[in-house]
Amino acid sequence: MYVLLAENRIVGYYTLSADNIDARDLPEGIVTQLNLPRYPYIGATLLGRLARDLFYKGRGVGELLLVDALQRSLSMSRNIASAAVVVDAKDEKAHRFYVDFGFIAFPDSKKKRLFLPMATIEKTFTR
Q1: Quick one: which H or E segment has residue 93?
Q2: Strands (E), 1-127
Q3: Which of 20, 58, 71, 95 has CA atoms 20 to 30 A from the CA of 78?
């Protein structure tokens, strides 16, 4: 768990953990397009419960936490098998937040599950 503190107050937090993606759940052709491993399950990083204190709403804290989480995920992917970051958006607002950052929805995902390929994250941070 990563926690952002200010003046002895928790501003926000998120968790990262190992996960996997069933390759059959990915959009058609994306395994080839992104040169992902051709295994039934692909290693991923789950971004769990990203949240910020309501006091800090509208101040960019969620975005800051997401960027930090993506940078950490990219760094860790160099040591462990992780081809993407996966999130489960809890509602439509959260879903839009992640889509605005380039996350891709899994087809037919009733849970509003999304992913961002590690290759995309790497391109973002190596410009």
Answers
A1: helix 92-100
A2: 2-6, 9-22, 41-52, 84-88, 104-105, 113-117
A3: 95
Give pTM, 2 decimals.
Answer: 0.88
Cα separation values, 115 from 46, 92, 97, 100, Å: 9, 16, 13, 12
Q: What angle do CA 89, 11, 92 make, to 5 degrees?
A: 20
Identify the CATH number of the domain in which residue 46 sits: 3.40.630.30
- Quote the domain boundaries for residue 69: 2-125
Dist CA 64 CA 82 (whole Å): 22
pLDDT in tens, 8-51: 889 999 999 999 999 888 887 787 777 777 788 999 999 998 99
* Total domains present in the chain: 1
Q: What are phi and psi of 9, to 5 degrees?
A: -130, 135
Q: Report how far residue 12's alpha carbon sits from residue 50's, in angstroms, rounded to the nearest whole number.
A: 7
